[in-house]
Design goal:
heterodimer; A: about 375 residues; alpha/beta; Rossmann fold; 2 domains; 5-stranded parallel β-sheet; 4-stranded parallel β-sheet; globular; B: about 80 residues; alpha+beta; SH3 type barrels; 5-stranded antiparallel β-sheet; about 40% strand; binds iron/sulfur cluster
């Protein structure tokens, strides 16, 4: 396995693969008089493409647009503010993924609240929240449940544990997002013209290859499921260029070592047991019908939104343009605050905070290359 | 949040396993991959193994990349 991993970033393989993509993209350009345009749906792909230098190297050949795949970036400001507001009550322990800590709220961030003495804990494994709940029966434990289909099964697992242990001091604030509805939104809105999608490797572990057939059947657009190593990314981009050149719409699973046709049914079953579809608000987009999952009424005792009375306020307006960035309308460099008022040290929007955010990837790896 | 790291199963229990990630050992849940066996590599996300890596397919991918490289070295693509 180590050998395989080594090969996936071996320059002897990557360099010719890169040249191959360039060559094919040139052919495309000659035929269609423009660059092929693809969207990487996953924030980790955005990061991997920038970090490996592939995005920069292909700049003149292929337009790679970052899509709505960074969980905190797509969460609308009202939800972010509400989650931070939760930390205000007494006797509460807020458990969260690291990304949420520095996301600026309209008034403050969770990090600032922790500095002021609030109990906010970053968990690598969300299931640790169950132990924290057992160890602190006098406190209310609230998990901030953000994420796509890779993470939602793990939230379902939390529900299962909480139910088994009959916890009364544990709840989840759910604001999860589903990939298909947002892809359909993008395709229907027609705001960004695309030749194909680089589909998210790890979300696809849960969903399975077959779940993307709607792209071809309903929208006649290709999707290639990609891994995260340089050779994997180049292989998938190469396949996308080829399909676009041939005018063919197809779903290709280019990450078959971890993604199966049907996906992970154990994960999907657990999700279906505790959660049901709900409308979700997306940053810069607004509400998309049935684009998220929320806790079923039968398990309302674990629903933090029902347990705590948080009034959603009108968020403070900023000049942050994350909303346009996550749908591919503009590149990070087009935001006037990029690299000036907004940097990873002093982020103004979530796209600069998260490792998966486009602004942070552009700042860390692509500055000055424009 | 989404990138998983390949981890090798070195000890298996009912709902959890000890994995080795580049020499350091840690505990992960295996409820989503109950069929996992000792020696398998898994993708771990947020403390849970979510997929077993199919080594055969992984090897085939490397062969495919090599073929691409060789084809490029020998003749025009289209
Ligand atoms: S550079 Fe900063 S302010 Fe501008 S869109 Fe990105 S995160 Fe928002």
């Amino acid at each position: 396995m180590r050998e395989i991993l080594n090969q996936s970033s071996n320059p002897e393989i990557i360099k010719p693969m890169l040249e191959l993509v360039m060559e094919k993209a040139e052919m495309f350009k000659q035929r269609f008089h423009r660059k092929p345009v693809f969207m990487e749906v996953c924030g980790s792909h955005t990061h991997a493409l920038a970090k490996s230098g592939i995005k920069q190297a292909l700049k003149e050949y292929v337009r790679l647009i970052s899509g709505p795949g960074c969980p905190v970036c797509v969460t609308d400001q009202r939800s972010i503010d509400s989650m931070i507001e939760l930390s205000q009550g007494e006797n509460r322990i807020i458990c969260t993924f690291g990304d949420m800590m520095r996301v600026p709220g309209s008034k403050y961030s969770l990090m600032e609240e922790r500095t002021k003495g609030k109990d906010v804990r970053v968990l690598y494994a969300p299931t640790d929240a169950i132990k924290i709940a057992e160890d602190n029966p006098e406190q209310e434990i609230i998990f901030l449940g953000i994420g796509f289909e890779t993470t939602i099964p793990i939230l379902a697992l939390l529900m299962q544990e909480a139910e088994k242990k009959q916890l009364t001091n544990f709840s989840i604030w759910m604001t999860t997002k589903l990939v298909r509805p947002v892809l359909e939104y993008l395709l229907q809105s027609g705001e960004v013209a695309l030749d194909g999608f680089l589909l998210p490797g790890h979300v696809s572990i849960v969903l399975g290859e077959e779940n993307y057939s709607f792209l071809v059947d309903d929208y006649h657009i290709s999707g290639v499921i990609a891994g995260f190593e340089p050779a994997e990314l180049l292989s998938s981009v190469q396949k996308l260029v080829q399909l676009a050149y041939d005018g063919e719409a197809k779903i290709i699973n280019d990450y078959p070592s971890v993604v199966t046709k049907k996906g992970n049914s154990a994960a999907r079953n657990l999700m279906a047991r505790y959660f049901e579809e709900c409308d979700e608000a997306w940053r810069g987009i607004g509400t998309i019908a049935k684009s998220g999952l929320d806790i079923k009424p039968a398990y309302r005792q674990f629903n933090a939104k029902l347990k705590f009375n948080i009034k959603q306020q009108e968020p403070r307006k900023t000049k942050c343009r994350c909303g346009e960035i996550i749908v591919g309308k503009i590149d990070p460099e087009e935001c006037p605050l990029f690299g000036k008022a907004c940097t990873p040290r002093k982020p103004i929007g979530p796209c600069m905070v998260s490792d998966e955010g486009s602004c942070s990837a552009a700042y860390l790896f692509m500055r000055g290359l424009g | 949040m989404c990138v998983g790291v390949p981890a090798k199963i070195i000890e298996k229990h009912e709902y959890s396993a000890v994995v080795d990630v580049m020499g350091s050992q840690t505990n992960v849940g295996i409820i989503f991959v109950p069929e996992v066996e000792l020696g398998d590599y898994v993708i771990v996300h947020a403390g849970q193994a979510i997929s077993i890596i199919n080594e055969q397919y992984a090897k085939e991918s490397v062969v495919e990349w090599r073929k691409m490289v060789d084809a490029r070295n020998s003749e025009p693509i289209f």
